[in-house]
Design a protein that fits this description.
Helix content is about 25%, strand content about 30%. It has ten helices and 23 strands. Among the domains are: about 90 residues, Thrombin, subunit H (Beta Barrel); about 100 residues, Thrombin, subunit H (Beta Barrel); about 100 residues, PDZ domain (Pdz3 Domain). With about 450 residues, the chain is of the alpha+beta class. The strands form five sheets. It has a seven-stranded antiparallel sheet. A six-stranded antiparallel beta barrel has the order 10-11-12-15-14-13. Strands 17, 18, 19, 20, 21 and 22 form a six-stranded antiparallel sheet that branches.
Amino acid sequence: MQINQSLVTKGPASRRKTQDLGVKKPQHRTAKPRRDESTEATIYYRDVINYPTTTAIIRSMESSNIKRIWLIFSQFCAAISIVLAAFMGLTQLFPGLIPDIINPKNRLVAINESGPSSRESGLVSYADAAQRALPAVVNVSTSKEITDPRTELLRDPLFQRFFGGSLPVPENRVSSLGSGVIVSPQGYILTNHHVVEAADDIHVALKDGRAFQARLVGADPETDLAVLKIDAANLPALAFAPANSLRVGDVVLGIGNPFGVGQSVTMGIVSALGRNNLNINTFENFIQTDAAINPGNSGGALVDTTGNLVGINAAIFTKSQGYQGISFAIPVSIARHVMEQIIRHGSVTRGWIGVELQDITPELAESLSLNTREGALIAGVLRGAPADRAGLRPGDVVVAVNDAAVKDARTMTQQIITIAPGQTTMLQILRQGKRYRTPVRTERRPNPQETQER
């Protein structure tokens, strides 16, 4: 029997060696010993089988471990992706549920959050205030005849007689539009003086379509206010807001007839209070607002968010003849005082002493050796006026009127005009470093034309 020496190991204690023939894992079988009588050697026989080597086993194990690790890693990445997607979805659906932890700045800055507002936070419309005020705002149309030098010769009686009195003379009339506010159910209307100035025909149109011929009760050019009257009763009158109820930042509505397009409402806020030295009127204490006021709005209403009257629209500041965000209104406190005097007396009566006043500048304070800039400097005294008769001189500084301190020239003017004509007021003045008390008897303040004639 021929034996394959590469497959047999002699002796029971020797280890078997096999070739790597690339076969599958062998099934072990028990070797049965046989004795070869020719060689007297005991030989262990096994079936002819193939075993993989150690290198192949290691490679197989490494390949299996890599696949297992890759599978675990891919499952981990998928789980992370699912968690992140769920997190982003929750932050989009419920912004306040999960705190913002992405931006580290949010954890470093302290934020002060305001509590519940004491005012109505859900107000987004001022329709109720507008509906309350609109029926009391009217359109005012005026017309007046103007003099044209070119037609004066045609009006001459001798010229007309030469042509037999049949030569036609063209009429030169100018029309204008404005607004007004019904302030009394009896038909009294408050508007601007410049709206009805020199007009010989005034018509008023109400929101409900009714139209009336109006007459001028009286006017006050120094505050640019006028009062009209129409023959009607039970009219919708606008309520006056309390004096000094406005604050800077309050929302206001402007109502009028801009450019004659019809009744319109604009909105803005109170930008400033007590505006003066604008050279618009003699007495100025304007409300400044950014509510749009255009030509035709003059004389219209400025109302608060409850629909109460807070001012009469009067002027705008512009360099383009149009609205530029700065409008002025006469406060209701002045408008009511003027209106009541016009209705009662037909005009406004104010106190007057006949002086020209000036604010004290630092240069004047230094030249007059004054320790303070408060007071009003008398720059001029009208001859024959109450101040002249009382002995006041240019250069005197008025520091008090009836023991009320005088801050500047405007303050003194306001104090004097509130004193009824014929009453005696006590002025405290500084003259050459000494203080004097001088009584002055006030008179009725003349209108601007009478002052110029004097």
